[in-house]
């Protein structure tokens, strides 16, 4: 949520002070930034899931008796 708010805030700030850049170009840049953020968030989620399911049980579980 914090990433979403920061991307939207940055986008609105840059939209106000875009000088002579067209709105369509600005929206394309914001879309690419948002897609990059989503890809990063999904990648971190997958890595955490792999750690939780495979690495942590193997190295940090107590041996069975």
From TrEMBL:
Annotated GO biological process: mitochondrial respirasome assembly
Cell compartment(s), UniProt: Mitochondrion membrane
Domain of life: Eukaryota
InterPro entries the record matches: Hypoxia_induced_domain, RCF1
Domain HIG1: 1-60
Any Gene Ontology CC annotation: mitochondrial membrane
Transmembrane segments: 32-51
Keywords: Membrane, Transmembrane, Transmembrane helix
Protein's recorded name: HIG1 hypoxia inducible domain family member 1C
């Amino acid at each position: 949520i914090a990433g979403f708010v920061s991307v939207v805030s940055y986008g609105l700030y840059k939209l106000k002070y875009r000088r002579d850049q067209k709105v369509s170009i600005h929206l394309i840049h914001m879309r690419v930034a948002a897609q990059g953020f989503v890809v990063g968030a999904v990648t971190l989620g997958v890595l955490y899931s792999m750690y939780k399911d495979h690495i942590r049980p193997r190295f940090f579980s107590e041996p069975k008796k």
